[in-house]
């Protein structure tokens, strides 16, 4: 079986942070994100959104291409395509016919998603929690599938009506002699950001984890009623 090569976004974020004598917590505070997000960004597991990328450039006084080395990554992708062209994989990574240009398309999609409004965008859909958002008369209810994730490893933040669910899935220790034929389960840091469909009271939010599903209920802000102004008669 040919092993799938994981694409990472090479960057100099860790070096710049150390150069400016910032801890991961301090950098997270200045960028308005969680420490887990900083760790994931430094490891190349996520792409920053455009607003976050601009904040990084301003903070470090550096051009975007000086922080994120896309040219290096693009060359790596096409080297991989050339080395595998014409070869047949015994077990494709997604249990589907092998497409030699899949990685190039994935990288292009990742670069396109740089301009989305989310705080950061995961490079692999499998690393993201799947969510359902439902609006009731009095609240917004969010359900996130987080199988195998401990509740103390999950953070939920709401800022400017944008909810961010982040955390880490710690995989069970696997002995080297326990060879896998095929493995789709993911471990490591994850993050998902999305806009809520209504104005909410963030300080009144409630969350509970049950059977691997995180349920968050956030009360909606009561709509402001128009105030009728009486016009005094002229005397």
UniProtKB/TrEMBL annotation:
The record, for CDD domains, names:
ACD_sHsps-like, HTH_XRE
Q: Which Pfam family is one of this chain's hits? A: HTH_3
MF terms (GO), sorted A to Z:
DNA binding
Q: What are the HTH cro/C1-type domain coordinates in residue numbering?
A: 13-67
List residues of the SHSP domain.
122-234
Which branch of life, at top level? Bacteria
Query: What SMART domains does the record point to?
Result: HTH_XRE
Q: Which PANTHER family match?
A: HEAT-SHOCK PROTEIN 20 FAMILY MEMBER (PTHR11527)
Homology family = Belongs to the small heat shock protein (HSP20) family.
Q: What is this protein called?
A: HTH cro/C1-type domain-containing protein
- Which organism does this sequence originate in? Candidatus Berkelbacteria bacterium CG_4_10_14_0_8_um_filter_42_34
């Amino acid at each position: 079986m040919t092993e799938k090569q994981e694409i990472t976004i090479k960057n100099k974020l860790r070096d710049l942070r150390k150069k400016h004598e910032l801890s991961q917590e301090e950098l997270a505070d200045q960028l308005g994100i969680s420490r887990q997000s900083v760790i994931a960004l430094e490891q190349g597991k996520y792409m920053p959104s455009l607003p976050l990328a601009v904040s990084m450039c301003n903070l470090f006084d550096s051009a975007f291409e000086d922080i994120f080395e896309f040219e290096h990554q693009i060359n790596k992708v096409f080297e991989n395509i050339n080395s595998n062209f014409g070869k047949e994989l015994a077990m494709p990574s997604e249990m589907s016919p092998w497409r030699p240009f899949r990685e190039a398309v994935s990288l292009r999609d990742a670069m396109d998603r740089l301009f989305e409004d989310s705080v950061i965008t995961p490079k692999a859909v499998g690393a993201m929690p799947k969510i359902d958002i439902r609006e009731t008369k009095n609240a917004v209810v969010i359900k996130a599938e987080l199988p195998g994730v401990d509740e103390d490893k999950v953070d939920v933040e709401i800022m400017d009506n944008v909810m961010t669910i982040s955390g880490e899935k710690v995989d069970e220790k696997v002995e080297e002699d326990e060879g896998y034929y095929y493995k789709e389960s993911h471990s490591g840091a994850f993050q998902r950001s999305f806009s809520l469909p209504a104005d909410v009271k963030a300080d009144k939010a409630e969350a509970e984890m049950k059977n691997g599903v995180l349920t968050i209920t956030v009360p909606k802000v009561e709509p402001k009623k128009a105030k009728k102004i009486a016009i005094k008669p002229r005397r």
